[in-house]
Write a structure and sequence with these properties.
By secondary structure, the chain is of the alpha/beta class. Helices cover about 35% and strands about 20% of the residues. The longest helix has 28 residues. GO terms for molecular function: 3'-5' exonuclease activity; ATP binding; nucleic acid binding.
């Protein structure tokens, strides 16, 4: 072994061992035995004759012999590569652990066949703070080994962390990218072999996973000998990659060691099963811990939260006060239609010479359904100009603002008017305002966080209802101001509706006639300066001026909770007026040495111009489904590079149970 390699290993060992910050007692050192002193082992005649171990280890005797043989071959500064296979979750299993010193045959431990006592040699090795283990993204393995077998990994050189530091301009490196760059000869050899194994596994899963589709657990699948052979080669390649990256990491020695330590504990110390340990496409039930952390449930887990209680709306018969302004016969006909159809009223549209139109949405639907109340119940002749005029009189003509919107005192309802050329009201669109905590229970972690969050969704999907519930939740612990020029969030009138909790509201008053967007923009700045809120809630950001005001609020450190029209993040990227909310766009020219140019062969690229105003974005798909982007900056960068963006799809079923799925889209 050359001097350079020795120096690299010594540097790596010193960095990671020092970061463990764990003082070893005499008993600890005694238990480590041969792991810390190869000379002691070599002095044992029985041990000196041990041959290098090959094959899969399934017994205590084989484990002890193999481990002692390994330690005989290792010097104090040698590092080992480790690959852990299985369903690496607290409700899953560890099927095998592959250990390689880089040059010799790999040791393959069959964890399922080994007893707790037989695992002790492996446990000593993995917990030894003086022996550096090279792994790629050790989070799930650390969590599973600790909670399933009581093994607490220490001193890990995480190549996923190393990749981010050494290649900051490249996308987060997969193990395939890592080996392709630092061990190309191994990558070329493994490429076809691994692809064939992957296709074989996928083919088998078409039947086995389809049969178990109703289960939230992944069936136990033991790796084949061929798969273990691939893992053995990968473990050796990891050691080579670590050696290659070590010189570049020395200037970040402290940062690297600290981040590797964090990788070991981030899943292990989570109050429950961390979602990032789940594979893509698996749907699992979840709940939130007391501190708001999302925890995935296993089949045997009993939720601590009564979801059936949480899903109930806080206002029953919310439309009664709105329908009270209608003529008696019309009101009765509409109520009869709503009751017989079993629908939840969203909007009611009344127009001169037309039958009333009832718009509704079921709890599990993704859109709004429109029905006409039959002529036998309400004739077209009944909705005449005089009828509209009478209803308008009940509302109060002076209640309509410059945008022809009005509300009913003490309610969340909104009434919009359309006029003819003479200025007379000919159509009334009545939006039912409801207070519901149903959907917000899917977003407890997002709401509890202090980061700005933006809700996207088409009209009528429930953005304002969700915004109202968020205002109620955050106002319990933080000073909250609702910017509400139309009274849609905090209710119409001077008093704040109970649906927004302890929030304060600003109705965006202006002594001069200005449009609602400008009034809202001015109110956002006024609230920030005069009321010193910790949270500002605003509905329907829609102009560059409002987007600029939103950035000002975010840069001051105030949490902004807002909505905007659009179905997906891609829609927002395409929106010239609002794309500043997600960082804006700019054209850049790449240099010849830029990894992105080498990959795409394109000199001119579109990239994100700045930090997003909203680091978290939620797409509302229906009243029971949301798509969550927890890292908007990363998602936008991926989309601009034509790469999939990671998301969480969270849903609520009819029983109020919460489910989550990781997906790339």
């Amino acid at each position: 072994m050359g001097k350079l390699k020795k120096d690299m290993q010594a540097s790596m060992l010193a960095t990671l061992a020092a970061s463990s910050n764990q003082a070893q007692t005499k008993e600890d050192k005694a238990e480590l035995g041969p792991s810390t002193s190869p000379r002691t082992i070599a002095g044992d005649g029985a041990m000196a004759e041990v041959e290098p171990q090959t094959g899969t280890i399934k017994s205590l005797k084989k484990a002890e012999v193999a481990m002692k043989a390994l330690e005989l071959r290792l010097t104090a500064d040698d590092v080992i590569g480790v690959c852990v296979k299985g369903n690496l979750r607290r409700h899953g299993h560890v099927s095998s652990v592959v250990v390689s010193s880089g040059a010799d045959e790999a040791l393959i431990f069959d964890i399922g066949a080994l007893s707790k006592k037989a695992l002790k040699p492996l446990k000593r090795l993995l917990e030894n703070p003086l022996r550096v283990k090279v792994m790629h993204d050790c989070r799930a393995a650390s969590d599973a080994l600790f909670h399933l077998h009581g093994i607490q990994l220490q001193s890990v050189f995480d190549t996923a962390v190393a990749w981010k530091l050494v290649h900051p301009d490249e996308r987060q490196g997969s193990i395939k990218q890592l080996i392709g760059k630092y061990a190309p000869q191994v990558a070329a050899h493994l490429g076809r072999e691994a692809l064939e194994l992957t296709m074989q596994r996928r083919t088998a899963n078409l039947i086995s996973n389809g049969r178990d589709a109703a289960s939230t657990e992944i069936p136990r699948q033991e790796p084949s000998e061929a798969e273990l052979t691939v893992e053995a080669k990968i473990s050796k390649a990891l050691v080579n990659a670590a050696m290659e990256m070590t010189p570049s990491l020395e200037r970040w020695q402290s940062k690297f060691a600290s981040r590797c330590e964090q990788q070991l504990s981030v899943f292990r110390d989570w109050p429950g099963q961390n979602i990032d340990a789940l594979p893509l496409g698996q749907i699992s039930r979840f709940e939130f811990s007391k501190d708001g952390s999302l925890c995935v449930l296993g089949e045997s887990d009993v939720p601590k939260t009564d979801c059936l209680t949480l899903q109930q709306d806080t206002t029953d018969h919310a439309e009664d006060q709105l329908l009270a302004i209608l003529p008696t016969e019309m009101r009765q006909a509409i109520l009869q239609h709503v009751t017989s159809a079993g629908i939840s009223l969203v909007e009611l549209v009344l127009g001169v010479g037309r039958a009333p139109e009832v718009r509704s949405r079921s709890a599990m639907s993704t859109g709004i359904q429109a029905d006409l109340v039959g002529e036998k119940q309400v004739s077209k002749e009944e909705i005449a100009a005089i009828t509209i005029a009478a209803i308008t009189s009940n509302i109060g003509k002076n209640k309509f603002n410059l945008q022809d919107r009005a509300g009913i005192e003490g309610t969340l309802h909104r009434i919009s008017a359309t006029r003819n050329q003479a200025g007379e009201i000919i159509t009334l669109t009545m939006r039912i305002g409801r207070a519901s905590r149903r959907l917000v229970q899917l977003l407890a972690d997002v709401v509890a966080d202090s980061k700005p969050v933006l809700f996207l969704g088409p009209p009528g999907v429930g953005k304002t209802t969700l915004l109202r519930a968020c205002a109620e939740a955050v106002s319990q612990t933080r000073s909250t101001v609702v910017i509400d020029p139309a009274g849609e969030i905090a209710g119409c009138g001077d008093s704040v509706h109970p649906a927004v909790g302890r929030s304060w509201k600003d109705v965006a008053y202006s002594p001069k006639p200005i449009d609602r967007s400008e009034a809202r923009r001015l109110a956002m700045g006024r609230a920030l300066e005069n009321m010193l809120p910790e949270v500002i809630v605003v509905d329907e950001i829609g102009t560059p001026g409002e987007a600029k005001a939103a950035r000002t609020i975010a840069e001051r450190g105030t949490q902004l909770v807002a909505t905007a029209h659009g179905r997906t993040l891609r829609d927002l990227i395409s929106n010239c007026e609002l794309r500043d909310l997600i960082g804006g766009l700019r054209e850049s020219t790449l240099g010849d040495d830029n990894p992105r140019y080498k990959a795409s062969k394109r000199k001119s690229v579109t990239e994100r111009a700045s930090k997003p105003v909203f680091p978290t974005l939620v797409e509302l798909r229906s009243s029971s489904c949301v798509v969550v982007h927890l890292d908007v900056a990363k998602a936008v960068d991926n989309i601009l590079e034509n790469a999939p963006a990671p998301v969480q799809i969270r849903t609520l079923d009819e029983q109020g149970r919460m489910f989550v799925e990781k997906r790339e889209q």
